[in-house]
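Lecture notes, unit on protein representations.

Consider one protein chain, 481 amino acids long.
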Amino acid sequence: MKRDSIQDFARNEARRALQGAKRILPLALLLGGTALAQDFNDRRKVQYPDQVTADNPQRTPAIPRKQGFDGTLVLTGGRIFDSVKSAAYPGSVVIQQNKIVAVLAAGSTAWPADAKIVDVTGKTVMPGLIDMHVHSTYPTPETPADMTDSEGHATLRALRSLQMLLENGITSVRDMSGPLNAPYIISEWLEKDMAPGPRVFAAGHIITGTGGHAADRPLTPIHSAAYTREANGADDWVKAVRETYKMGASHIKIASHFAPDEVKAGVAEAHRLGLKVTCDCETIYTQMAVDAGVDSIEHPLPRTDETIKLMAQKGTASIPTMQVYQGLFDSRGVYAGTASRRFSMAAQANYDILKKMIAAGITIGVGTDNIGGSFYNTPNIYIADLKFLQKAGYSPAKALMAATRVNAQIMDMGDKLGTLEPGKLADVIVVAGNPDQNLDDLAKVEMVVRNGNIVIKDGQVYMPRHVPVPLAKPSPPETLK
């Protein structure tokens, strides 16, 4: 079969899948003697099995580069909570460069003689936590009014806010909008290990209809054109998705309001580009988004029992972000003041929605909606969101699985993050306690390994000294005339 006919066949099969085929078997083809597999449930481009790609959902083919610890790093003597099994067990985690290469049973010393050994006896070793909803570039209380839209200022304040997350074991975040190019700048910077911080998977702008959420009056510094892309009509929604993808988005965030044809067009285009879509929406818009095939819904905003049932049927995940709204109730008493959100909210109603979603079997992830000054609440706000899950019936271990493995799967990174398994990226934390039994122990993160590098040591940011690059040809001054 010629190359062109292979590509045509793949395109035709993908088109049939998008038109509603219920089952298409994975295709294995031979091209130049190399097996090339295509799973039509995976919307990414076809890749050779050994093709190196960027460690983000765009999966851009990449040139291999050296990353992580220069040698072998072993965390030994501790309890391993790998987020695969629900119970911790004694063992060791072996890391080479930026990958986990082995999870060994207690007593095994199957690692190189020159490995760096870190004794973590009495502590829990687990995957890095993931926060599915943050706004790292948003203004903090110290931000001058004329700097709220500044890309430079936004990038710098993000570095500070994200460092607080890293110190507390959060090694990946989904950034859910920010001003202009700032979210992409911080995402690219941290992907290359250029500063201490978690991985940042950026949405960029929120896409909404004119006057929709984050674009309604009265405008605020974070609800303005610098943060939001207003789109009108199906064609413009497609264009907005393409623009966001072009800027480097790892996922697409949409918000109510929109018309049915608009949300369908936007979701379909994002899926064609290989990106997942999440929706900040409520009431009738939630059902529209779920009907359109959106991948997840943010917040515990009002929705009907029918919509919850539909979410379960279609496999739509939920990121409840319970504590951010509870904080509003506790500090203000009510949730009010935005024309795009004309509905009432209450603590009990939000909790009831969470319980109904869990009872329906909906996949639940963990996110905080951290914004501005709320980063100073880390890790309290994150632990509080986990405790909402615990109150609703999760065990501490299951809540941790939601915070790691499930979160990674929701954002299309389950093959690289979320568990301690050979081949996964080495994002690993060490906790002085048993968080799988007591969630409050998550406040005791002592060490963080991010992309194979020790970045938090004894609870503080750890940065090895810069290694000088030799001059091309050293010339002692005394040799000069």
